[in-house]
Structure formats: C-alpha cells, structure tokens
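tool_call: predict_structure(chain=1)
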Amino acid sequence: MNLPTPPSFRLEGRRALVAGASSGIGLGAAVALADAGAEVVLAARRADVLDEAVAAMTEKGWAASAMVLDVADIEATAAAVTAADPFDILVNSAGLARHSPALATTSGDYDAVTDLNVKGAYFLAQAVAKGLVEADKPGSIITISSQMGHVGGVDRAVYCSTKFAVEGFTKAMAIEWGPRGIRVNTLCPTFIRTALTEVTFNNPERRAWVEDKIKLGRVGTVEDIMGAVVYLASDASSLVTGTSLLVDGGWTAD
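tool_result:
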C-alpha cells in the first residue's frame, strides 16, 4: 500500500518578514517561524525593543535580524522591502485600536486606525508580493486580522471596519496572485492577553462579555496563535488561500 506523505511544517531555507514584531502577537509569530527554521526579519518602530528580541532569539540559535519600520509610512516601507532580498513569508501584525462609541468617533482616530490597519497592511502585502513576482517565487502572505473582521462589537465600529476591509482585500489579492503561487490569508484571533488588551480585561463588564462569548471559556494567549502562523506559512497549507483561520475559541460559532 502506498501511504500519503504528510506535508512538512518546517521552514528551513525561507525568509520571513514579521511586521509589528516587537511585542505581543507579532513577537509570538516571529518566534514560531524561527523555531520552525525560517530566517526571520523582525520589523517595528522601536529599535531598542527589536534589538532585545533579536538578541534573545539568536541566543537560541535562531536566524533573526531587525528592521526599523513604520508600516503606516507607505513609501519608506516599500523602499525597505524592495531593498531587501525577497521574502517567502510575510506576517503583518502591525495594528492599532482606538475604541469608542460610534457616536463619539473622531476623524483623527478613524484616520489613524485605518491608515495602519488597512492602508499600511495593503501596501506592505503589495511590496512583498512585488518582490516575489520579480523573483518568480511562490510565497505566503498572512495578515493578522481579528474575529472582529467577522462580527461586530461594542465600541469597535472603526476597528471592525478595518478588519472587514482586510478580509476583503485578502480575498481579492488571493485571486490575483494565486496563479503565481502566492497564497494570501488572514489569521483571526479572539481577545489575546497582551499589554494592549489589558484595558479591556481590567474592565469587569467587558471581561465578562469576552468570557461569555468564548465557548472554550478562556481568553487567548500569544502561544495560541503560534501554531496557526506556522501552518499558514508552511507547505502544510499549500492549498489554502483567500480565507481566514479563526483562532477564536468558538466566538464566531453563533
């Protein structure tokens, strides 16, 4: 009997760019990819924090380096990506949230969140894809979206709108770039405990809402997204494109 060959989750020989890699989900993604064998470039705005993360990763024997990058600066980001060798993998975890009731949303907050979560993510994906096309290479582009790209939430009208937009351009890019072997997907976590989400968890009413919606009965940790990132980056997901991988504890099952 000829048994099927399991696909590999290993990433040796591949270069990954992780934006928003200085903390939280982005740092977790960088560690997961490096542990799977990829050469990882950690990108974020804070050079000192990036250097600390790179030092900790290289101490473990992983291939890691830093790139100071503000994804909201479209021209500078494109120039930095163009100047580098092509990236086989992109994980875009750079993001911003400014929550408020929809009636209280300011144009400044709307623009700041949209400029990073939508415009920045779009053009970073474009820059990485251009490098792959020019090198005639396949690749995997992963944007960290959110369960809020599939449902609504109190005080999250702006944030939800940006994540719904990410889901839309992901599908369109997947259709365009699929013939070139470039896969484009989103990873959609539920509430993950990080420094940025402590405000929500410190609010008893909001925490109760979160815990009630997550069917598995607990909030997420950074470790919960690491396996999903490796899956989407690796050959194990070679027929997966234009879709969302929800790591939401069952939030969107309703």
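agent: The mean pLDDT is 96. Proceeding to next step.
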